[in-house]
Amino acid sequence: MLFQTGSLTRQIEEFFFFRLIIQRSKMLSIFNSIPTHMDYKGQKLAEQIFQGIILVSAVIGFAYGLIIEQFGWTVYIVLGGFAVSCLLTLPPWPMYRQNPLSWQPALPETTGETQQKPQENLKKKKHK
């Protein structure tokens, strides 16, 4: 016998396990292409939109609930406003990525200890 039944079963399980991992990694690679960042001005805009929608829905909900004398409708309208504001502000829509940061270029790394960090150049004070 070339294979024992236990080792053949194990080899088959490993084959399908690794195949599943490869398929799952291909599926997850789709998510890597989705942008997940938002610049600072985009964050500010998203916060303003979120607060504005919540405020408007709270005022409308309060007024409508007061007119028909049903507090439940006030809650429903505020929750609806919350859902709309989450849909508009949580994903990093392109309107939130209009002002990217310009990073400074990286400093070249030097090998050796001849170059000290700026903090190390300062004279150390002795405590009395």
Automatic annotation (TrEMBL):
Q: Any idea where this protein resides? A: Endoplasmic reticulum membrane
The protein's name in its UniProt record: Signal peptidase complex subunit 1
Give the source species. Hucho hucho
- Source organism, top-level taxon: Eukaryota
One GO process term, biological-process aspect: signal peptide processing
The record's family statement is:
Belongs to the SPCS1 family.
TM ranges are 49-67, 73-93
Please provide, in alphabetical order, the Gene Ontology terms of the cellular component aspect for this entry: signal peptidase complex
Cite the Pfam families for this sequence. Answer: SPC12
Q: How does it assemble?
A: Component of the signal peptidase complex paralog A (SPC-A) composed of a catalytic subunit SEC11A and three accessory subunits SPCS1, SPCS2 and SPCS3. Component of the signal peptidase complex paralog C (SPC-C) composed of a catalytic subunit SEC11C and three accessory subunits SPCS1, SPCS2 and SPCS3. Within the complex, interacts with SPCS2 and SPCS3. The complex induces a local thinning of the ER membrane which is used to measure the length of the signal peptide (SP) h-region of protein substrates. This ensures the selectivity of the complex towards h-regions shorter than 18-20 amino acids.
Mode of membrane association: Multi-pass membrane protein
- List every stretch annotated Disordered: 106-128
* Function of the protein: Component of the signal peptidase complex (SPC) which catalyzes the cleavage of N-terminal signal sequences from nascent proteins as they are translocated into the lumen of the endoplasmic reticulum. Dispensable for SPC enzymatic activity.
Report if keyword Transmembrane is assigned. yes
**Chief subcellular site?**
endoplasmic reticulum
**Keywords assigned by UniProt?**
Endoplasmic reticulum, Membrane, Transmembrane, Transmembrane helix
